[in-house]
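PROTEIN DESIGN WORKSHEET
SECTION A - STRUCTURE
LENGTH: 189
TOKENS:
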């Protein structure tokens, strides 16, 4: 069940959106009448996503979205607007939101938009995870290559013997080759 925060300065719209989301198995963990309170609820609750009206007091939806995004307070933001124009779309893009909906909204427009955004969020999250693993593997590879270079210089080993040495020590000590490589690099500076 995905957790969501709703912010709109019109109470009837907040209640309506909350009911639609709850009927479709979304957990509404907070609602706010302005962007400032929406940010604070997101800080406290760490929801999966937030639905923010663009025109609200104190902080508008675009400003709140920027704060939420910069502080990684939730996975993504959807914006609601009563106005459909290109400048709002451009501002939404600059705020790095997942999408926006034009009021009036109903279940047939809200839920598909939310489901598409959730799907895109899952894909992005998966790509970030894969990218992180690839980055870490590359870093480990660089460290291992540097350690092999130290072993080649200090112990007169060839590259294959240096790698096998790192591998054996790692297995004997119950740690990763990268951990052993870091120690070898640190002790041979």
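SECTION B - SEQUENCE
RESIDUE ASSIGNMENT:
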């Amino acid at each position: 069940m995905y957790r969501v925060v709703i912010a709109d300065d019109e109470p009837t719209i907040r209640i309506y959106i909350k009911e639609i989301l709850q009927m479709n198995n979304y957990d509404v963990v907070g609602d706010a009448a302005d962007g400032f309170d929406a940010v604070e609820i997101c800080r406290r609750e760490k929801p999966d996503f937030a639905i923010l009206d663009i025109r609200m007091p104190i902080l508008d939806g675009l400003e709140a979205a920027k704060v939420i995004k910069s502080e990684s307070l939730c996975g993504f933001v959807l914006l609601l607007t009563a106005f459909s124009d290109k400048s709002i779309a451009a501002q939404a893009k600059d705020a790095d939101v997942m999408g926006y909906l034009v009021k009036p909204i109903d279940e047939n427009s809200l839920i598909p938009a939310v489901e598409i955004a959730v799907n895109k969020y899952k894909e992005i999250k998966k790509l970030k995870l894969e990218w992180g693993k690839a980055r870490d593997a590359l870093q480990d590879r660089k460290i291992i290559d540097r350690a092999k270079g130290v072993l080649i210089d200090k112990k007169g080993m060839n590259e294959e013997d240096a790698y096998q040495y790192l591998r054996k020590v790692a297995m004997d000590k119950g740690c990763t080759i990268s951990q052993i490589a870091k120690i070898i690099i640190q002790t041979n500076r």
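SECTION C - NOTES
The first strand starts at residue 3 and ends at 7.
The radius of gyration is 25 Å.
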